[in-house]
Amino acid sequence: MMTTTESGPASAPEPVFSEPWHAQVFAVTVHLNETGCFDWPEWAARFSKTLARNGLNKELDGGDDYFLAWLETLEKFMAETGRVPPDQAHAVKAAWEQAYLTTPHGAPVHLPADQSSISSTSA
After folding, report:
1. CA angle 92-94-97, nearest 5°?
2. What is the DSSP track for the chain?
3. Domain count, the chain
4. Residue 43 domain boundaries
5. Which of 70, 106, 110, 112 is 20 to 30 Å from 20 by CA-CA measure?
6. 25 belongs to a structural domain
7. Partners of 8 in beta bridges
8. Is residue 87 part of a domain?
9. Would you say residue 23 lies in a domain?
10. pLDDT of residue 39
11. 60 located within any domain
12. Which of 3-12, 100-109, 113-122 has the highest mean predicted lDDT (pLDDT)?
C-alpha cells in the first residue's frame, strides 16, 4: 500500500545501514548486477544458501553477521565465475587491512601507491 504526503505519493524508504561498509558491499553488489555481471535471482539463490548455512550455527541478527554473509557470498561468487581470482582478492584485502591498521585514527585510509594497482587490474 502506497502512502501519500501533502507533496504527493511517498517513495519507497531508502535502506538503512548500521555501518558504512554494509552500504558499500550492498552498493557494489547492486552495481555488479546492474552492469550484467550476474542476474539477481542467481545472486539471491547463492545468498540464501550462505544465510542458511551461517544461520545453522546461530541466529543471524541482521547486522554485521548478515553483511559478512553477504560479503562471503559476493567473494565466492566472483571467484567461482572467474571475475576476481581468489589470490587477487586476498592481495587486495590484505593491502586494505594493512592500510587501515597503519592509518592514524580519524584519517582517511588509502592504499599505498605501489599497491593501488592491484585493485584496478582485471583478470
Report:
1. 110
2. ---EETTEEPPPPPP--SSHHHHHHHHHHHHHHHTTSS-HHHHHHHHHHHHHHHHTTS---SSHHHHHHHHHHHHHHHHHTTSS-HHHHHHHHHHHHHHHHTSPTTSPP---TTTGGGGT---
3. 1
4. 38-98
5. 112
6. no
7. 5
8. yes
9. no
10. 95
11. yes
12. 100-109
